[in-house]
Amino acid sequence: MNTQSILRELVSKEIISERQASMISEYETAKPLSVHWELRFMLYVGILLFNSGLGIIIYDNIDSIGHQAIIAGIALLTAACFYYAYRKSHPYSPDEVLNSSKLQEYVLLLGCVSFLALEGYLQFQYKLFGSRYGLAVLIPTVLFFACAYRFDHRGVLSMAVTGLASWLGLTIAPLSVVSGNNLTDLKILNSAIVLGTLLSVTGWLSEKLRIKKHFSYTYIFLGGNLAALAALSGLINQPYKVVYAILSFAFCLFFVLNARRMQSHLFLLLGVIYAYITVTYLIFFRISEDVYFSLMTVYLTVSSIGVIYFLLNFKKILGTAR
Question: What parts of the sequence cross the membrane (predicted)?
Fold first, then answer.
C-alpha cells in the first residue's frame, strides 16, 4: 500500500483532515531521498572491481608489459593513494575525526589494497621475503594499524586486525572463523583465545583511555567472537572442559556487559547464543540415551519459553526500555 492510499483511507475514516493529508503528501513528495549507503556500496564494489580488473589486465599482458613496468605502476598507484589521503586528512586526534572528504576514505582503502597487491607481486616474482612469510604478513599489518589510527579508518583497522590474526596463523573473519581455523589443534585453539582476549581488552581500554574509543566496537566484535568460538571448540573437543566452560561463560558475560554499555543488540544476541550453546552442551554431553529424548523434550520447551521471554524483554536487558 503506497502513501496516497494510506492517506485516502485515513481521510475516509476522518482520522485526519484533507488539509493535513495534502500537507503530508506534499512533504513526502518533496523530501530528499538519501542514497548514502547505496553510494558507499558502489564505491566499495568499485574498488574491488578496479583491483580485479587490474589483476586481469596484468595477467593477460604480462609478457608485453614486463614485470618492472607492472611493479612501477602498482607502486605509483599506491603512493598516489597514500599521498592523497594524507593531503586531504585532518591532523591526528585521539577522538573520532569526521573527514570532510568521503573520497579520502576510499582512496586510502584502495591504497592499502594496492600495497597488498604490490607486496604479493614482489614476493611471487622475486621472492622478496624468501621463506619468511611471517615478515610478509607483519609489514602490511603494522602499516594498516598506523594508517587506521592516523586517518581514523575502521575499515583499515579491520584489515590490520585480520593481518595480525593471519600472522599468528588464524582466520578472524566472522563468516570463516570456524571453517578457516583448525580449532581442534590445541596450539591454534589457545592462540585464538589469547588473541581474542587481547583484542577485546584493547577495545575496552580504547574507551577507558579515550584513544579512538569508537574503535572499541571493531576490537570487541572481532576479538570477542574469535575467543568465544575458540572457547566453545575447546569445550567440545578438549579434555579440560571445566576450564573452557568457565572461559566461554566469561566471554558471554563480557558480550552482555558490553551490550548494555554500548546499547548493542548484536553483542547481546552473541552473548545469549554462546551461553545457550554452552549450557546445552554441558547438560547433554554425558547423559545416557535412556533419558536423552525425554530430557530433550523438556529442555526444548523451557528453551522456547526462554526465547519468548528474551524477545519480549531484550530492551529491558539492554536498559533501553521506556
Answer: 41-59, 65-86, 106-124, 130-149, 156-176, 188-205, 217-236, 242-259, 266-285, 291-312
pLDDT of residue 110: 87
66's grid cell: 614486463
In tens, the pLDDT along 106-151 reads 889 889 988 988 888 888 888 888 888 888 889 999 999 999 999 9
In the chain, helix, strand, coil percent, each to 5?
A: 80, 0, 20
pLDDT beneath 50: ranges in the chain: none
CA-based R_g, the chain, Å: 26
Q: How many CB atoms lie within 10 A of CB 48?
A: 13
pTM of the model: 0.77
Distance CA 274, CA 265 (A): 14
> Taking the domains of the chain in order of start, what are their residue ranges?
65-167, 176-322
Task: Kindly compute the dihedral angle of the four CA atoms of residues 296, 279, 218, 48, in this order, to the nearest 10 degrees.
Answer: -30
Angle between helices 154-167 and 186-208 (to 10 degrees): 150
